Amino acid sequence: MAAVERVSADHPPFRTEAFIDGAFVPAASGRTFSAVNPATGHAIAEVAACDAEDVDRAVKAARRAFEDRRWAGQRPLERKRALLRFAELIRTHRDELALTETLNMGKPISDARAIDVRAAADCFAYYGECCDKIYGEVAPTTDDNLALVLREPLGIVGCVTPWNFPMIMAAWKVAPALAMGNSVVLKPAEESPLTALRLAELAAEAGIPDGVFNVVPGLGVEAGKALGLHMDVDAIAFTGSTEVGRYFLRYSAESNIKRVALELGGKTAFVVAHDVKDLGAVAEAVAGGIFFNQGEMCTAASRLLVDNRIRAELVERVAALAPRWMPGDPLDPDAPAGAVVSREHQGRILSAIQAGGASGARLVTGGTAVRTETGGAFVAPTVFDDVAPSSALAQNEIFGPVLSVIGFDGLDEAVEIANGTIYGLGASVWSADLAAAHKVARRFKAGIVYVNCFDADDITTPFGGVKQSGFGRDKSLHALEKYSDLKTVWTRL
Ligand code: NAD
Questions:
Q1: Which of 112, 154, 384, 415 is 20 to 30 A removed from 269 (C-alpha atoms)?
Q2: CA separation for the pair 162, 160 (Å, rounded)
């Protein structure tokens, strides 16, 4: 077992065991894995390494809770109250949760506090409010029939989440699933399992009954796979890489044809027309779009497509902003960026940078590890110009602070390049000609499009992709469709 770093005297101990049927329990095998602080490289906790046996235990608990209707059978008003209490408890524990998130995955503490905790709480409150506002339908049949269309929970929902926004990704799935009356088994990413475990405890404190919200930390190939293959899981809601998304489709086909919803990778094109009025504002949006959260964003603005007439000036402006996004100590409230999630991930980012340089792209700024003396995993904000649209730099999701600049001549070429990857998650277009911008917006093959802005966000809007960025939507009322089914009930009058 790795030595565990002491965090701080006033930080409550991390929850490290699986949360099954309302109680913390060790993995049946007794095995653990280390949760590592990526800013120091030190282990901060030893976490239960759940495998198929633990997943089965959690699914059985979730099934019991579902079948005895202890949650789904409550008055919707009561479920709403519990979810609103849960949201309030998240807010009450804001500092603790933010610190845990930062220590476990390296993001700046001010972002964890202002964005991650707030968005997770708001998400539970939003879906809590939905509980008593969802209606079925009466179908327009002949007078001698009554045909009801009921909206029912699916049963057991397995949620499998990534490490870049651990609490938010969990909330986007668990909240609508619970609002519809399902029971949930959550498998957080092995890099960042700690906040999910604390959330489950707070949910219990808020009155969500035992067995309704279970958390099984563990490796993807063990706990994640077991959940995907389980014969009694009704649906999987997955966010992560396209590669692992494919596994979940296979798991479903090889087991019980469970429903699968996939929020996968992206390679957002940020298209800038020659007529933009405020190049400074565009440069700020590009830099924030790629360097925020260390570039570990599915919608990161990783490809800057810019009209060749203004390309040199925009590249210069973005490069000049890069130092403002230089990572610092994630615990420093003024740090604009923190550590990337692990040394392994840092290695992958640096390899992509090296291959980019070798492919003929021109390194404008960054390209190296920084703060190496800390033992942590930090990468300098990096900009490449002259990137070939078909190169690995422009095609592969790097999931780090690496911007690829590609020139174009005219918006037709821009749209072709923008749509020329396997992904279809985010896209952005900037132009003084709003009609031209909206025509481009319609031609983008993407689930989320920004016109003259970037990364606007609200829980009321659907979030998700097309093509190999997956299918199904998180957020908004549309997300509820993923966690419910329609049942038609005929009565002959
Ligand atoms: P990942 O695909 O490696 O892991 C995601 C989850 O799947 C983790 O919980 C992991 O343990 C599990 N997993 C891994 N291998 C598995 C297997 N063989 N069987 C079952 N489960 C397995 O992704 P990541 O590295 O944690 O996150 C980064 C990825 O997430 C990026 O591709 C990013 O674009 C994507 N992402 C997408 C969205 C979106 O909404 N579209 C949001 C955030 C992140």
A1: 112
A2: 7
